[in-house]
Amino acid sequence: MNKQKWSVTMAVVLCSGGIFAFSGLLVPSLANSAVIAKYSTATQVNAKASPAEDAIPVLKVEAAVPVSTVNDDLLLEQMTEEEIQQIYDYMELPGDPHSSGRNMTEAETNRWLVLEDQYVYDGVRPQKPLPLQAGQGEVYFDIKNNTYHQPEHTWTDEEMLQMIDWYYRLNLVASKRNITAPPVAVPDKFSQAEVQARAAESVRKLFDADVSKLQTNVMLIQPDYNFGRPSYWTVHSAPYKSRTLRGQGQEYWQYDVRIDPDTGVVVDTTAFNSVIKRTPIDAAAAAAVKKDDSWIKEATRIVKDKQGEKRKIVKAYLTDTEKNNKRGMVAVDVLLEDGSKYNAELRYPGKQLRCLIYEPADKAK
Fold first, then answer.
1. How far apart are CA 335 and CA 316, in angstroms?
2. Reduced to 3 DSSP states, what percent helix, strand and coil does the chain have, rounded to the nearest 5?
3. How far apart are CA 47 and CA 111, in angstroms?
């Protein structure tokens, strides 16, 4: 498979899984990350729901865990050898996909999200497959020229389902192809269950949230030496059918936790809310924040009382103010006596914690 095309596909998969939610690509969510994970250098497990052990509320938890209808073997049985080979041939083409036509509106994107959940969990399918050449509809993929053609009219449900179905089949076929990734030395000191438990505990401590009934994906991301990215565990928890909740404009929380695979230390715990709007910090507000030490006090309180840090705090200060003002965030670096530090990112103006990032002494310098 074309290496560049594969790297882009993996980036899309991570976005669709919710870790980097809803990028500006052709469609809001393109693939079943569990399918691709079986084929990539990452490993993944879907956590089963378990009874809550305390009274901490969880937003938008389904009463029953929905079961996916995206069955690998069933989808493959519906494809001819010619169709499968066509996808294999496409994978060898150079370059990344292009698109032409009108971009989706917000309303169309929301409809797509609901339809994708219906495709996955309710077995809703298009009446016909996505055309792979011109002349069979306004929505089609010109597979030879690597170009997606989008309609000038409002997308119909059938057109959306055709595109959703195509992406699931595309990634399913990719997952079945025999590609051997080069061996990479990754620490294997902690099991997925241990990683998941540490992530859940971090979310509980920092956000008073119980993730036991949320859909949890655990992935070990391999290092990328070309970009200087180390290996790390990522644990993402969100309500089942969260695409439907987002498409309907309902509020819910999801959580992303990163863990060092060598030490087992949680290095990033982030909470996302589906409806919270950010408030950019203008010049006058920025000047006020700079003079207001309550932001630094709240960050240090979180580190000591929520995180449970026992080491001495030697300094705390605002950081990256110009960038964060545009984002509507106030970030505070909390430096410890051994040189390690935390970065607490607080939402403006309410001081709610968005994320807590930890850097050990050898990386914080």
1. 6
2. 35, 20, 45
3. 27
- Does 349 sit behind a cis peptide bond, omega within 30 degrees of 0 on the bond before it? yes
**Are 152 and 138 in contact, with CB atoms under 8 Å apart?**
yes
**Digit-coded pLDDT (tens) for 138-183:** 999 999 899 999 999 999 999 999 999 999 999 888 887 755 555 5
Rounded CA separation 227/77 (Å): 39
Cβ-contact 129, 162 below 8 angstroms: yes
Residue 45: strand pairing partners: 218
Residue 85 sits at the vertex; the CA angle it makes with 180 and 14, to the nearest 5 degrees, is: 50
User: CA 195 from chain center: how many Å?
Assistant: 17
Of 338, 339, 341, 322, nearest to 330 by C-alpha is 322
Report the relative pairing of strands 98-100 and 147-149 from DSSP bridges. parallel
CA distance 220 to 38: 12
**Residue 356, C-beta contacts closer than 8 angstroms, at least 6 positions apart:** 206, 268, 269, 302, 303, 307, 342, 343, 344, 345
CB 117 within 8 A of CB 124: no
Burial 156-193 (b: 16+ CB within 10 A, else e): eeebbbbbbbbbbbbbbbbbeeeeeeeeeebeeebebe
pLDDT digits (tens, 9 = 90+) for 29-48: 333 333 333 233 344 444 33
- E-strand ranges in 208-352 read 215-221, 232-238, 253-259, 266-273, 313-319, 329-336, 341-347
On the 0-12 / 13-18 / 19+ scale of CB atoms within 10 A, 310 is exposed
Q: Which residues, 6+ apart, have CB-to-CB distance to 16 below 8 Å?
A: 28, 29, 30, 31, 32, 33
